[in-house]
Hints:
Elements: H1 6-21, H2 30-59, E1 63-67, E2 71-74, H3 77-84, H4 87-96, H5 101-107, E3 111-113, H6 117-131, E4 136-141, E5 146-153, E6 156-162, E7 173-174, E8 180-184, E9 187-193, E10 196-202, E11 205-217, E12 224-233, H7 236-245, H8 249-260, H9 277-300, H10 308-311, E13 312-317, H11 324-335, H12 340-350, E14 351-354, E15 365-367, H13 368-374, H14 376-396, H15 401-407, E16 410-411, E17 414-416, H16 417-424, E18 427-430, H17 433-443, H18 445-450, E19 455-457, H19 464-470, H20 473-483, H21 486-489, H22 504-529, E20 538-543, H23 552-568, E21 577-582, H24 590-608, E22 616-621, H25 626-632, E23 638-641, H26 653-659, E24 663-666, H27 672-679, E25 685-686, H28 691-700, H29 705-710, H30 713-720, H31 735-741, H32 750-769, H33 771-783, H34 790-802
Parallel strand pairs: 1-4, 1-13, 4-12, 13-14, 14-18, 18-19, 20-21, 20-23, 21-22, 23-24, 24-25
Antiparallel strand pairs: 2-3, 5-6, 7-11, 8-11, 9-10, 11-12, 15-17, 16-17
Helix pairs in contact: 1-2, 1-4, 2-5, 6-34, 7-8, 9-11, 11-12, 11-14, 13-14, 20-22, 22-33, 23-24, 23-30, 23-32
Ligand 26V binds near residues 116, 117, 121, 460 and 651.
Amino acid sequence: xxxxxKETFKKDYREKFIAIHGKDIEExxxxxxxxxxxxxxxxxxxxxxxxxxxxxxQNGKKQVYYFSMxxxxxRLLGNTLLNLGIRNICxxxxxxxxxxxxxxxxxxxxxxxxxxxxxxxxxxxxDSMASLSIPGHGCxxxxxxxxxxxxxxxxxxxxxxxxxxxxxxxxxxxxxxKARVVKFGGEVKVxxxxxxxxxxxxxxxxxxxxxxxxxIVGYKNNVVNTLRLWSAEPLSNEFDFxxxxxxxxxxxxxxxxxxEAISKILYPDDSFYEGKLLRLKQQYFFVxxxxxxxxxxFKSSQVNINELDEKIAIHxxxxxxxxxxxxxxxxxxxxxxxxWDNAWRMTNNIISYTNHTIMAEALERWPVDMFKTxxxxxxxxxxxxxxxxxxxxxxxxxxxxxxxxRMSIINDGYINMAHLAIVGSHSVNGxxxxxxxxxxxxNMADFYYYYxxxxxxxxxxxxxxxxxxxxxxxxxxxLKSTIGDSFIAHPTDMINFEKFAxxxxxxxxxxxxxxxxxxxxxxLIYRTNxxxxxxxxxxxxxxxxxxAYKRQTLNCLRIMDLYDELVENPSLDIIPRTFIFAGKSxxxxxxxxxxxxxxxxLADKINRDDRVNKKIKVVFMENYRVSLAEAIxxxxxxxxxxxxxTKEASGTSNMKxxxxxxxxxxxxxxxxxxxxxxxxNDNIVIFGITExxxxxxxxxxxxxxxxxxxxxxxxKRVIDSLIDGTYSKDKNRFKSIYDNLVTYNDEFFVIKDFYxxxxxxxxxxxxxxxxxxxxxxxxxxxxxxxxFSSDRTIKxxxxxxxxxxxLYKNLE
Length: 812
Ligand code: 26V
């Protein structure tokens, strides 16, 4: 444990400030003060970090490596202080020096190296692994530019580069001595030596992968795990000497630029796959560097390479790091002289894979020609894996060529990465019960039949340390004062809060806390959007990526309908609401961008209309990111989880809202189903088309949105207002949304669910009217949210997939 008190901290802080800034604290800017604090905290962590690594090396327990193209960490200072157990000491000591800790925390740039759910899940998992004392580390890419910053200009999204490293990053340590070389292009020479085939990769281009390590501090347990992010640099010998010195500057610069491009940007598409060469390069770059460094580490600590599968587990976060499979095979076979069968057995034992989406357009399929040119040796290995797999299939499904073709890894000129991931792993999991069932019976049915034991479910979770204790400290305090603090180490103990659900005093405190959080958010909204919102209104929140399947459109149509109704009948008896939206669209996803514009246009019109603006307001908060979510979620009354059933694999913001005492309005999709099972139908509002109806429509047809609309004046009025000039003088402005719903038959059943959603919203109003009932629902939601802590999820991964033991205590 760290032994510091207020006085030692003050002294350390003063010294650190002077050492890095060469001036007194009083002369420093707030940002200088943040930098000094971050740097001091990193020093505090450094010794624990070294000790943790020493222990890991000595005790020989299995190490887990979580490979992911994305880690959406957000800010690190607050969470690190909390986990070190020194946040209060620091706060008080800084207060004594006239420095406000909260203010400094807000100056930290979000580390936004992810698109959304998948990247944030990876970050919560790192927090849980460290807090459960599991030797588990992250491996990814240190993108120079993270997920773009979103500006709203003239009601529409404009993307601005996220130059998050411009002021440096106190949390990372560059480890130049641990750099590895990654090889691209070239050819493979095959020789036959002493009866063995030898594969000689020649004429390749070399790229230097340089690791930057970030400490991941466990909750008050002295554990510091590592997130290793790789940055691409030109090899100095290739750059400086062979080209530059010969005067070939242009070529030298081209080489430098092409190398640096590899870790320059995070691809901002989410759930939409494009076969971009640079993305394939990124994938091999970090996977190869990561695996080389793991193998180097174990070989230098005298581990027998033939037993590597007992020492490590590698988890691949979606198919993006699937090249880990052929890369491990390459190193085992070409560099370690291990035969195919043994290499394959170990690879299979080491790798496990999580699927995060069933959306067909997100599935990665690399064109063979591109792949072969960039990664010639890796391609040969994939071909061999495919050949052997198809032979196996042929034994089981004799001459059933359709089936064999369907399941093969290479087909029609493409490499199917999900197939490679399934064949090369010992475990495939979905991220919520419904999602896993859909994988088993629909998308991956052939594979489930072939490898029934390989498939399993691991319902997602969230770090309750970040999403409750750190972002909603007042609620955490109420929990401590009612049920004690055991829930911090054992989040399912939150269930004890259920006893207080009807306690009037607790209900009053819950209401007060929400009110204070709403006031804070209202201030932020005023500062960012210039809109005054009523904190007595219900805060009705939908924040997530903007996507047709998440159905922000359904929410908009309902607001448009309500607006019409209120104009016609200003005394309509409704609960006043503030509709809050936030979310980014992929830059090339035009319909989603139009949805953002529609929300902003609605906001302009409604907020200005004095006939309605006492009852409803609409706010679109720009630049959705982790730190904004932390400000919005504790202030939400209603959580909108309204995706088309079957489409949202899990969702994780649904869990965050629940844990912060919001009531959910939801379809039975993703983890909403499990939330409903936990809290019961009385404490969540469910609506919408069922799983079977959706699957049936997709399979057999029979859905006709035009038909529904044409026979319904109310619906028709709302839909027509998209194109009749009500919301834009340019009648074509929202034509894409209209066409999607009407002309192209509403792929996501917005029209079908419209009335059912309106009914559900009416029910929400009724529930909200009864204050005590509402607070009881909030309390029950909080009490049942412990199961959605990522600690539970990670324990399931550790025991069910990785076979890893934690360092200090056994996993209960
Ligand atoms: C896919 C692709 C496709 C290729 C282009 C770039 C790119 C980037 C990200 C992705 C991942 C999309 C899948 C994803 O984020 N799924 C979300 O995962 C969450 C964590 O499991 C889950 O809660 C969400 O429901 C699911 O949509």
